[in-house]
């Protein structure tokens, strides 16, 4: 059985004097205690399970959960694919601390690292799979291309990335989603709508533009009244 020492929380940004702006998992820090109950009631766990099934992760694979938040997707990978080696990266320290507590309670080994998608704190060609659920729409427009490039960099040849994210940004934003908060948080990109870059095949285009091959839409779904798209690509 795993021990608590199998869960590592690393913070290479602890002394960063000029942190990048970001939107935490719940949108606002004070909402974090409600995030897990809200996502559970909203059906996010079922979408996580579908993402894991589509990803093709196998025992022994090294997996990065990009934008892991409170760790629900990373925990599901660790629990459902025994022997997988899971790392979660997120810029929000309180979310990572919550993820670490849950992993220790469930005795699921993993490494949680504070970092940004556009500068992942992982070595080149170090993971077999990148998974990301409902995180890409948190990335500022001017960091999206760099984030996709980092996915390419950390994937080993033949490795895959599987993403689930909103693909109808205006619809989610009108319903009071993250769109308005994103506009306020990313002052240097004031006026951008939630997940504008995901519209009209934007996720496929983003991954293809980074040099990943065979990017395709696997499935469409609905979540919180908005369109959700599952996309997968591979490093040659």
From TrEMBL:
Alphabetically ordered keywords of this record: Methyltransferase, S-adenosyl-L-methionine, Transferase
Signal peptide: none
Database matches in CDD domains: AdoMet_MTases
Coiled coil: none
Gene3D superfamilies named in the record: Vaccinia Virus protein VP39 (3.40.50.150)
GO molecular function annotations of the record: methyltransferase activity
PROSITE patterns tied to this protein: UBIE_2 (PS01184)
SUPFAM superfamilies: S-adenosyl-L-methionine-dependent methyltransferases (SSF53335)
Domain Methyltransferase: 63-159
Superkingdom: Bacteria
Biological process per Gene Ontology, one example term: methylation
Record has Transferase as a keyword: yes
InterPro entries: Methyltransf_25, Methyltransf_Superfamily, SAM-dependent_MTases_sf, UbiE/COQ5_MeTrFase_CS
Name of the protein in question: Methyltransferase
Organism: Cellulomonas chitinilytica
Lineage: Bacteria, Bacillati, Actinomycetota, Actinomycetes, Micrococcales
């Amino acid at each position: 059985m795993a021990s608590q020492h199998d869960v590592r929380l690393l913070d290479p940004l602890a002394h960063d004097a000029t942190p990048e702006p970001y939107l935490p998992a719940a949108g606002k820090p004070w909402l974090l205690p409600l995030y897990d109950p809200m996502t559970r009631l909203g059906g996010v766990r079922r979408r996580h399970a579908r993402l894991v099934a589509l990803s093709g992760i196998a025992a022994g694979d090294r997996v990065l959960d990009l934008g892991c938040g409170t760790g629900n997707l990373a925990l599901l990978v660790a629990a459902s694919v025994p022997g997988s080696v899971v790392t979660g990266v997120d810029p929000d320290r309180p979310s990572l601390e919550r993820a670490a507590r849950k992993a220790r309670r469930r005795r699921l080994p993993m490494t949680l690292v504070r970092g940004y998608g556009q500068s992942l704190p992982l070595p080149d060609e170090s993971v077999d799979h990148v998974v990301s659920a409902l995180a890409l729409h948190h990335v500022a427009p001017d960091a999206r291309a760099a984030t996709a490039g980092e996915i390419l960099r950390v994937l080993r040849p033949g490795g895959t990335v599987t993403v689930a994210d909103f693909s109808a940004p205006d619809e989610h934003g009108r319903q009071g989603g993250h769109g308005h908060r994103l506009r306020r948080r990313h002052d240097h990109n004031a006026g951008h709508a939630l997940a504008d870059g995901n519209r009209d095949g934007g996720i496929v285009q983003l991954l293809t533009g980074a040099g990943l091959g065979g990017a395709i839409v696997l499935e469409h779904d609905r979540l919180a009244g908005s369109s959700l798209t599952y996309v997968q690509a591979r490093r040659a």
